[in-house]
Amino acid sequence: MEATRQNKIARLIQKDISEIFLGMTHSMPGILVTTTNVRVSPDLSVARIYLSIFPTEKSQELLDLINSKSASIRYDLSQRTRFQLRTVPTLSFFIDDSLDYIEHIDKLLKKL
């Protein structure tokens, strides 16, 4: 069970990371990056950020780009949260494939 502090920090990071990605994808028409979930470790040192990327064909390519710019994203996050967080956690980005999984299950149920 996650603590209240972890949940508050996760929501703060999710909101600010979403705004950062909105600014980044402004110059890339046809690409949508959504922050679906953020999990923060109990010691608040690591944040696992799950992203939903559209179109899905470019998701791995975009995830590699995001991981290569992880340091600059962390810096932008630190500038946004400098009065709320003492230290910014290390960011790890992952593709959230839960929507694809739901779609797959729906297709299987329709076949029955």
Can you put this structure into words, describing what you see?
With about 110 residues, the chain is α+β, with helices and mostly antiparallel strands. A three-stranded mixed sheet has the order 1-2-3, with helices on one face. The termini are far apart. The model has no long low-confidence stretch (mean pLDDT about 90).
Keywords:
single chain; 112 residues; alpha+beta; GMP Synthetase, Chain A, domain 3; 4 helices
Tell me what the CATH architecture is: 2-Layer Sandwich
Described by the principal axes of the CA atoms, the overall outline is globular
Computed over alpha carbons, the radius of gyration is 16 Å
Task: Give the total of beta strands.
Answer: 3
Q: Helical segment tally?
A: 4
Taking strands numbered 1, 2, ... along the chain, how are they ordered across the largest sheet? 1-2-3
Along the chain, the helix and strand elements come as HEEHHEH
**Could you name the CATH homologous superfamily?**
K homology (KH) domain
